[in-house]
Hints:
This protein is mainly α. The chain has one domain. It has one helix and no strands. The protein has one helix spanning 46-57. The longest helix has 12 residues, at 46-57. It is elongated, with a radius of gyration of 16 Å. The two termini are 20 Å apart.
Amino acid sequence: EEKFGVSAAAFAAAPVAVGGAGGDAGAAAEERTEFNVVMTSFGDNKVNVIKVVRGITGLGL
């Protein structure tokens, strides 16, 4: 975060919608498996920022 001037807060778990009031209380909420990452500003370190995002998510781009 300090090296590239970015915040990992954007990668924190997104809020998960809770089921309706009539839903089963024992049912687990679905975990999100897809996320959209929008890089709005990254300065001169574009390639390095992409590498960090790949490392955090464990995915290829």
